## 1
Amino acid sequence: MPVITYVQHDGAEHRVTLPVGVSLMQGAISNNVPGIDADCGGACACATCHVYVDPAWMGRVGERGAMEASMLDFAEGVRETSRLACQIKIADEHDGLIVRLPEAQH
């Protein structure tokens, strides 16, 4: 199973092992990773699971969808590497993925 590293704004790291097929957001919530609010539960209806994907991994997590891009308009501090964690489904090739969390989700 892939090991994912979530890095909080203060630099604290949380390495978790996730089953293939769960979302990056579900993985954070299930493992009590702070900094992912997930107010809508993963329906791509808010932007409270905003993460910054490590640039080295951008090609492997796929592109933002139109709805995701629209929701990111509501997030603060959006960058080229911004994604919503609810829209990234974990696959075997994500083993070693690093994502960073913004200072706040609102």
## 2
Amino acid sequence: MFGYVIPYKSELKMKEYNMFRAYYCGLCKAMGKEANQMVRMGLNYDLTFMGLLLSSIQEDRSQITFEGCIANPFKKKPIVQMNNALKYTSNISTMLIYFKLIDDWNDEKSITSLLGTVPFINSVKKSSRKYPSQYNDIKKYLKELSKLENNKCNKVDEAADMFGKLMESISTPDFITDEKIIRTLKWLGYNLGRWIYILDAFNDIEEDIKKKNYNPIILQYKYKENESINDFLNRIKEPIEFSLTFTLENMSRSFELLDVKYNRSILENIIYMGTRYKMDNIINQKEEEQIEKSLRSIKH
């Protein structure tokens, strides 16, 4: 599965890529332990980045063992063992997936989505008791985002701001108590959320025009029915790319303030290269692997 927050694999050493995969698999297993096996289907790279980042600013280095998994039980591979960061991120993942399914049911009356919520119900209750502040914030900001969408908000910055606030909230687990680190993570999370929302909105323009779905970029830049989609994308490419690049720069500056104790080269690869590679492919409509619906998909 591929999200928007991915490493730029060509510039990673093999041992760094294997370490990233170890966190990916570690988060997958953590979701199985904290919730249930069905929940693992919602694993994505965006939350893997969060688990990796939060793990890498802890004093204790993550423990790694070689294990098989459901997908390949006979092949042993490195897997990061449960720690505070992965435990937290796995619960956040469960809540986000659950609310995505609820949103799909509300918007599209998707029976599949409604049935898909069943394995999550008890797990989400447990997650909400463990992390009540984040649970309430996710509900609050998604509700505010729905209001903006129902009111056909035509300012992409306003919609992206709401998703940025959601990401700001979930980027600061309670086990981090240093106020300076909390402020830095909040700003990093806010800009990450804003970047994901705008990039995903741009990526969905063609589909949203055809299906007449809500998309703040289409409304803000006044798409005309007699205008080809390619002409529209080319017309808005420059201001959207400027906004995304500015947001990534804010995220990068926040990252540079963190005392990263491990995995710095992997995190730098993701923040300075992976995100820009993904953005360049989408903005310039280059061919690449199919993109996983990312975090913004909890509202689409």
## 3
Amino acid sequence: MIEMDFYTVFWREMIVLKRTFYKFFASRLVSPLLYLVAFGWGLGRGMRMDGGNYLEFVVPGIIALSAMNTSFNAVGISLNISRLYYKTLEEYLIAPLSAGSFVFGQVLAGTVRGLIAALIILGLAFLFGAKLALNAWFFVIIILTCFLFAALGVVAAMTINSHEDMANFSTFVILPMSFLSGTFFLPDRLPLGVAYLIKALPLTHTSYALRALAQGQGLLPVSLAVLGVYAALLFIAAVVVVQKVR
């Protein structure tokens, strides 16, 4: 059950973000800037993909992977360290706060961080000359993506019992999605079985939906539904694992 006290958790995370914002902002600039330089100006110069130039093809993919990485790491790494090393998570868990409120506060905070990272890339993309058609659905897809990967971060942080295994989870789950889920190229180019597997992943639907919206093709209802289902299931799973840890 989610009560209004989720706001306490969320507000605490926002205070932390405010105090470390310059460091957060600078760190979020590095990876997308390198991706845009390498794939937009470098490898992608003169290349055409999906009916447009490669820079405009790759920007939605970079936004998708950055939203995923930022929201997952902001929640997963932080909670895992708090739980296993600093033991500060216990203060939350013994507080008169429902598991739903705790998870919702953490996930919302991760969503805000992921959204900021996506906005940074959008700003850089326009500076690089990308022409993208933006509307409200574009930001709904980003927020939904940040929400579901922040919830996945809670699940991972609560079920993985060492920092090394958290790194392994990122290596075997997050990293492959970053490069294969329609971010830099279409999964249709992969072998048929692998392509079907890739198309079942949430980040693939984020890339597809953002790219379609950026190209003015409108919302993809199937991708929106898939992201909504993933977000609901992962949020429920996060609440269940927090209840078990308690």
